[in-house]
Amino acid sequence: MADEKDSGNGSIQHPSWDRPVVATIALELGGLALSGLVALVGWPFGWLPDTSLVGVVTGFIAIGPAAELYSGAGPPRRLAVVAALLALATVRLLVTAAVNRAFPALADPGVDILLGYLVALPIGVAVLAWFLARANVA
């Protein structure tokens, strides 16, 4: 992999799983900032972005680290992708249910789904990175 480094004593240090997760969180925040700017521009004209649109835009912006991990990984990628998608779906459902239970009277019902997705995406990337790093070390 491109991120492998020689530590000087002959051993190779493999990339850490936390860098893609931090990059995903930073890109999510950037996507939310972009959506916030769109909302501020559209608000005087009576247009606010739908929460599903915010989720899609943020997801497309934040998926870069996962795509780089996938493209740079070796052959046993399918199990890592399945595990990451299962983690993403499970965490999203759990957070959505928790937000819906904690705040039952939200003005927009899509907010709980958006929050579930925003929390689940870095966890899915962490699972993907962990499985890929584990498969490439063995």
Explain what you see.
By secondary structure, this protein is mainly alpha-helical. 71% of the residues lie in helices and 3% in strands. The chain has 5 helices and 2 strands. The chain has helices at residues 18-42, 51-62, 64-72, 78-102, 111-137; strands at residues 5-6, 12-13. It has a two-stranded antiparallel sheet with strand order 1-2. Strand 1 and strand 2 (12-13) form a beta hairpin. The longest helix is centred in the C-terminal third of the chain and has 27 residues, at 111-137. The chain is globular. 24% of the residues are buried.
Q: How are the SSEs ordered, and which strands pair?
A:
Blueprint: E1 5-6, E2 12-13, H1 18-42, H2 51-62, H3 64-72, H4 78-102, H5 111-137
Antiparallel strand pairs: 1-2
Summed up:
The protein is mainly α. It has five helices and two strands, in the order ββααααα.
- How are the strands of the biggest sheet laid out side by side? 1-2
Q: Based on DSSP secondary structure assignment, what is the total number of beta strands?
A: 2
Question: C-alpha Rg, in Å?
Answer: 18 Å
Beta-strand percentage range: under 5%
Low-confidence stretches: none
Find the structural class using helix and strand composition. mainly alpha
Mean pLDDT: 81
Task: Spell out the key features of this protein.
mainly alpha; 5 helices; 138 residues; two-stranded antiparallel sheet; 71% helix
